[in-house]
Membrane-bound metallopeptidase (Desulfosporosinus youngiae DSM 17734), 270 residues
Amino acid sequence: MANGLTERTPQIIAAEINSIKDQTGRMLLYSSVEIGRRLAEAKSMVNHGEWGKWLESSVSYSQSTANKLMRVFDEYGDKLTVAQNGSNSESIPNLSYTQAIILLGIPEEERESFMAENDVTGMSTRELKQAVLERDQALSEKAELQNALEVNQDAATKIIFERDELRKQASGLQATIHTKELTIRTLQEKLEAAKQSEASAVKVTALEKEIKAARIGLTANKVGFLYKSIAKEFEELLKELTKLAPVDPEAHETYKSEVSGLIGKIAERL
């Protein structure tokens, strides 16, 4: 104690300086809102094409500075006025100009909830910038995750559709094969009956030709189905290899080599 007064310390002086800085920042925000309000009013009066000249000659502002001030008014003017008249939005008048500018990076409809979730008025400029950055990163990650989920859902839907189509094709092939097998069996029975009844050689030969044609048709159907299945799967394999290349080049080269080797073996056996 000295002369009945509290002893001055660096900590006390720092607190006083920070308090003055906060008050100055709030005063600057209020002043910026009021200047922006008047700039918006003046702009509605100035003739078209003369706004830039008026700013320079009358208030020494560039258009970018004027636009920033008018935006501050647009974003905070009504809220600041209402808050000063007794609104519950107590955090608005407590913002500094710098904090208000940083918060312009958050959409208006989300700004109030952000301020409610964070002690914005108690944050330093660096802390507030970091909080806004983390918010943006979280939203970006959420959007990416949602997009990935939608892509995966679309892929799953496509796979299910293709699976069902293959099942239909397989079912159709089985029905065709069954029909042709019945046809072959019927023809064989007719052939045996013709031989036992000593039918003419012409009739027997005709039945033998029908059986041969039916067997060829049955084999052709099987080959056609298998070919389409292989071609479809090969196209899908190429797509997946293309996706794999940028994320795992080593695995891509390995599978690419194996696929090439398999194709070579297939070609040799054809």
Remarks:
- The chain has two domains: 10-123, 140-269.
